[in-house]
Write a structure and sequence with these properties.
two-stranded antiparallel ribbon
C-alpha cells in the first residue's frame, strides 16, 4: 500500500518532467533554466501532493475513530467537514447516521421508561419471559406474589422464580400456544 501511495505522488511529477523535457527540446538554449524550473515544479508538486495526502489520511483517521466510538455506543461530537470533497460527503453521511442513531436511542429510552412506569404502577403481577423460559423482568406486584426479590429475577430460569407447579405448567402451556389461554 505504501508503494501505491508513492506511485500516486510520482505520476504528477513524471507528467511535469515529461512536459519540461519536451519544452527543453523545443526551446533549445534556454534548457538550464527550464530544467531548474522543472525541478522546482516537481518539488512543489511533491510537497503539495504530500500535504493533500496528509489531510485526506487525517480525515479518514478521524472518521475511523468516530466509527469506533459509535460502535461502542458513545455518541461523539460531530465530525468536522474535511477539505477533500469525497471525504466531506462521507463525513456528512456519517454525521447524519449518528444523528439518526441518537434519535432512535432517545426514543427507545423514552419508550423503555414509559413501559417501566406502567408496569410499576400495575397492581397485577406481570412477568416477562423469553422462549427459553428465562425471566426478562417482573414488576413489583409479581415479585410480591411469588415471594422473590425483584432485582434478582432477571436472567433466572422460570423454575427458580415460580415455585408453584401449576403456575409453571400454565406458563409452559401459554408459551407453546399461539392462542390466548385462560387459567
Amino acid at each position: 500500500m505504501h508503494q501505491k501511495r508513492f506511485l500516486h505522488q510520482l505520476v504528477p511529477t513524471f507528467v511535469v518532467l515529461t512536459t519540461s523535457v519536451w519544452l527543453i527540446a523545443a526551446i533549445g538554449s534556454s534548457w538550464p533554466w527550464l530544467v531548474g524550473g522543472a525541478v522546482v515544479t516537481a518539488v512543489v508538486t511533491l510537497f503539495v501532493g504530500r500535504v493533500l495526502q496528509q489531510r485526506a489520511l487525517q480525515a479518514l483517521s478521524d472518521l475511523a475513530t468516530a466509527a469506533d466510538h459509535l460502535a461502542r455506543g458513545e455518541l461523539s461530537p460531530k465530525l468536522a467537514k474535511p477539505d477533500v470533497l469525497e471525504l466531506a460527503a462521507i463525513t456528512e453521511r456519517f454525521n447524519g447516521m449518528a444523528d439518526v442513531i441518537e434519535q432512535r436511542l432517545r426514543a427507545l429510552l423514552a419508550q423503555s421508561s414509559e413501559q417501566r412506569a406502567v408496569l410499576a404502577s400495575m397492581s397485577e403481577g406481570v412477568i416477562a419471559i423469553d422462549l427459553q423460559q428465562r425471566v426478562i423482568s417482573l414488576n413489583r406486584a409479581a415479585a410480591e406474589l411469588l415471594n422473590f426479590a425483584q432485582g434478582l429475577a432477571a436472567g433466572r430460569p422460570l423454575q427458580e422464580v415460580i415455585r408453584n407447579a401449576d403456575l409453571r405448567r400454565f406458563v409452559t402451556q401459554a408459551l407453546a400456544s399461539d392462542d390466548p389461554i385462560s387459567g
